[in-house]
Design goal:
It is a single chain. By secondary structure, this protein is mainly alpha-helical. It has nine helices and no strands. The chain has a domain of about 120 residues: AhpD-like.
């Protein structure tokens, strides 16, 4: 059930048709942000540009976005990126475990570093360490490190915007063969 804090705006029919063709539905973040078409178009354009970058492995970028979404609590981004992982032919056994990556044994050391980096960038204030950055830089190289960092920053923009606007999952991941794992509850112990 949606808890939108800003109503949906009417979007152009060609954009509506394009999203239905691509995702099977109109993306609620676009409908909500369309109240300011300049903002909506800029987000769409930047997201499209990010999709063309190829210095960092697609699975690392997708898993990082999912880790940010799980940490922030953006069910929409988690839902869409899990669906995208299946559409891109990524390892769904791994993708399904991103919300509980620390407890899962399916990730490589590099993937674990990327997921830790995504969470460290998302913390307020950020908790990225020199050691983690150095490990990633050594494994990825500077071009992929910069790209991964920008992708995680964009994930923070989208997840935080969606959460603040009350945008929640549209059920894209229901089409996936493997259910998405839930994020473990944090212990209340000090």
């Amino acid at each position: 059930m949606s808890t939108l804090r800003v109503s949906k705006a009417e979007i152009p029919s060609e954009l509506r048709e394009s999203m239905i063709k691509q995702f099977g539905a109109v993306a609620e973040p676009v409908e909500v942000t369309w109240h300011n078409p300049s903002v909506a178009q800029a987000a769409l354009e930047f997201g499209a540009r990010i999709a063309t970058w190829d210095a960092a492995d697609e699975s690392l970028k997708t898993f990082a976005h999912m880790a940010v979404a799980a940490q922030v609590g953006c069910s929409w981004c988690l839902d869409l990126n899990y669906f995208a992982a299946q559409s891109q032919g990524l390892d769904m056994a791994k993708a399904s475990q991103v919300p509980r990556w620390r407890e899962s044994d399916v990730f490589t050391p590099l993937e674990r570093d990327v997921l830790e980096y995504a969470e460290a960038m998302t913390n307020t204030p950020p908790t990225v360490t020199d050691e983690l950055s150095a490990r990633l830089l050594e494994q990825l190289g500077p071009a992929a490190m910069v790209e991964l960092t920008a992708c995680i920053a964009f994930a923070n923009l989208t997840t935080r915007s969606n959460t603040a606007l009350g945008i929640t999952s549209q059920g894209f991941s229901d089409a996936c063969d493997i259910p998405l794992a839930g994020r473990p509850e944090k212990s209340m112990a000090a």
